[in-house]
Amino acid sequence: MSYETIDLAVERSGIAIIHLNRPDRLNAFNRIMMEELLSACDVIDGDDAVRAVIVTGTGRAFCVGADLDTGGDTFDAEARGRDPGIINRDGGGRVALRFFQLTKPIIAAINGPAVGVGITMTLSMDVRLAVPEAKIGFVFTRRGIVPEACSSWFLPRLVGISQAAQWCYSGRVFPATEAARAGLLVTVEDGEDVVDRAHRLAEELTARSAPVSVALTRQMLWRGMTLDHPMEAHRADSRAIQALGSLADAREGVESFLEKREPKWSLRPSRDTPDVFADWDEPDFR
Fold first, then answer.
1. CATH number at residue 238
2. Cβ neighbour number for residue 74 with a 10 Å cutoff
3. What is the DSSP code (8-state) at residue 260?
4. Is residue 137 within a helix (H) or strand (E), and if so which, with residue range?
5. Segments in the chain forming alpha helices (H)
6. Helix or strand (DSSP H, E) at 175
7. Which of 30, 216, 240, 242 would you call most buried, defined as having the most Cβ atoms within 10 angstroms of its Cβ?
8. Structurally, how many domains does the chain consist of?
9. How far apart are CA 110 and CA 134, in angstroms?
10. 282 lies in a domain?
11. Quick one: how far is CA 278 from the chain centroid?
């Protein structure tokens, strides 16, 4: 599939790489990029050969935030021809939520500045790797707006409310090393290629794991953060163990371990991943 603002490639190893590809604009985010990222996620979720995803930038930036080419009207819905009486969905939020729903692990390989939506879109990814010289910024208050892309939900859960407040209130740009100390991301060693490091991590996360098990585990971890009590997690865990325990991959996982051989997984995330969070009021839970 051909795209205008991104590139999508699937390697033979089963790793999909998305390049944000507007290097002349430092990969600034616009509506076309939003639509193409949503499309790429659909392609990836529909391709069971894909085991993990890496998102990086083309050129010297990851993404410097929203494209400001319309000047002061950039965030004015009415000026952009939208009905001001209707709440228009935030584009960054649509992308962040789609990454949240993805059935494959997703890694940000931050190769340069990641500011505004350039960093908030990564908060629903599983791991953020960055070159030490990358600059990070939640700059929204300095643009007269507020954080978007669901970052008011994701960021405090990742780094705590106090750190999230300091970064968001001030809107200052800070080094990747500071973000790493707070646990937001992991910096790679000086001179190390961040995409190569992301690739090694993606293989480590998925090479020997059952794809459906990874897909369901990802949803259990992320959606588990919304639950009010560990009993709810216990219910989801119990459903998941029961749902997968009778399927072919559970048998293969045990038998391959006992026989000291590599497993041959047969289940597919696109069709075989159960929803263990649906219908909480079912009476069959003991």
1. 1.10.12.10
2. 14
3. T
4. strand 135-137
5. 31-46, 91-101, 117-120, 151-159, 161-170, 176-181, 194-206, 211-224, 230-245, 248-258, 269-272
6. strand 173-175
7. 216
8. 2
9. 7
10. no
11. 23
- Helix, strand, coil share (%) of the chain residues, nearest 5: 45, 15, 45
Do 201 and 222 reside in the same domain of the chain?
Answer: no
Predicted pLDDT at 70? 73
Question: Which residues, 6 or more positions from 265, have their beta carbon under 8 angstroms from its beta carbon?
Answer: 210, 211, 212, 249, 252
Provide the β-strand partners of residue 175.
Answer: 135
Query: By the 8 A CB rule, do 74 and 37 touch?
Result: no
Query: Is 284 a member of any domain?
Result: no
Which residue range is the domain that position 24 belongs to? 6-206
- 267 CB neighbour count, 10 Å cutoff: 19
The Cα 279–Cα 10 span in angstroms is 36
Give the model's confidence band at 159: pLDDT under 50 very low, under 70 low, under 90 confident, else very high.
Answer: very high
pLDDT grade for 170, boundaries at 50, 70 and 90: very high
Residues 180 and 245 grouped into a single domain? no
The residue type of 100 is F
Average pLDDT score over residue span 86-99? 92
Q: How confident is the model at residue 73 (pLDDT cuts 50, 70, 90)?
A: low
**CB 26, CB 63: distance < 8 Å:** yes
Mean pLDDT of 133-143: 96
Of the three residues 172, 206, 240, the one that is the final residue of a domain is 206
Residue 53 falls in which region: left (phi positive, over 0), alpha (psi -120 to 50) or beta: beta
pLDDT tens-digit readout, 214-273: 999 999 999 999 999 999 999 999 999 999 999 999 999 999 999 999 999 999 999 999
At what angle are helices 230-245 and 248-258 packed, to 10 degrees? 80
Last residue of a domain, one of 170, 190, 206: 206
Query: Tokens representing 7?
Result: 């590139």
- pTM score of the predicted model: 0.93
